Amino acid sequence: MADPSLYPDANSDTDVGTDRELTAGTPRWVKVFALIGIVLVLLFVILQFTGGGDHSPRRHTPPASVTEQSVQQP
Predict the structure, then answer these.
(1) What would you report as the CA-atom Rg of the chain, rounded to the nearest whole angstrom?
(2) pTM of the prediction?
């Protein structure tokens, strides 16, 4: 059997390394999803402030002047 005086902490529960590895921080997948979410929110805000083009239902209907002319002609 080994001399206990050579390894004083061999049987103690003070090994901090294993506990630190289990609670190291936020997992990588959480950081990736958070980054993707932030990028999407920023893109949405930028598009709202810059206009982002005409994507309303009016875009697919002709102007009123065109529909009035086609109705008046027999």
Answers:
(1) 34
(2) 0.43
